[in-house]
Structure formats: structure tokens, C-alpha cells
Amino acid sequence: MSLSNQDQNSSCLLKDVGIMRFNKEHMRLASYVAEFQEVVDSLRTREANIEDWRHIDALFGRILKVASGHFKAEEDMMNAQGYPGYDSQKKQHDKFLEKMLKVQEDIRGRKIKFKDDFKAMLWDWLINHINQVDVEYRDFFNKK
Ligand SMILES: [Fe+2]
Ligand SMILES: [Fe+2]
Hints:
This protein has a single domain, classed as Hemerythrin-like (Four Helix Bundle (Hemerythrin (Met), subunit A), Up-down Bundle), CATH 1.20.120. Helix content is 77%, strand content 0%.
């Protein structure tokens, strides 16, 4: 999938956390969230049809899969290197996944109407977590 201009701009907002693999996963997550925002925007003026729901199912599946794999990789690395911020990272990761799993359940039951605040929450969480929390491990890992 090629990134649209909007996605490229969004990706530039992400700070470099010093590990190429994690930077790439962050960009991938950001591009999924941007894609999700586009879907939600397109549903402002009409009801979701079967194809929209399929798109949303697939997107959420991807977001959850990439996020859980990414969180696990970060946590493993933090554990292996005795990173002092592990506990707060783990807490944020778990809370996010728990929330996303609940949303996924609502999506599967088609019991959800996406509002702008949810859309913003997803984006804000991601940017805040990467730029404020993840970025703190950059110097720690690079010194090792
Ligand atoms: Fe991360
Ligand atoms: Fe993280």
C-alpha cells in the first residue's frame, strides 16, 4: 500500500525513537489510524454499508495485530535491558489494547457509531505515546 500525502505528513510528526524496526512499526500504525480516520470521515454523511464494515473490520484487525506485536517487542527489549520505564510503558500498552479489544467487540456486533472524539482519541494516544513515552527509551537503548 502506498502512503497518501496525508499519511506522509502524519508520519513526519512522529519522533525518531532510535530503533529502525520500531520507527517503521510506528509509521505503519500511524498510516492505519489515518486510514481509519478517512473511513470515519466518509461516514459523516451516510450510513455504513457492508463494504465499509468489512473495511473497518480489516483495519481494526490490522491495528490490533501490529500494535500487540509492536508492544510485545518493545517490552521484551525493555526487559532484556533493564529499562526503568518498563512498568509505565506496559501499563499504557495494556490499557490501550484492552480498550481497542472492547471497540473491536462493538464493531463486530455493529453496535458502534464512530464519533470524532474517538477518532481523535486514537490519533492523540498514538502520537502522545510515541513522542512522549517511547522516545524516552531512545538514549537508553542507544547507550547500550
Ligand atoms: Fe512504540
Ligand atoms: Fe510503547
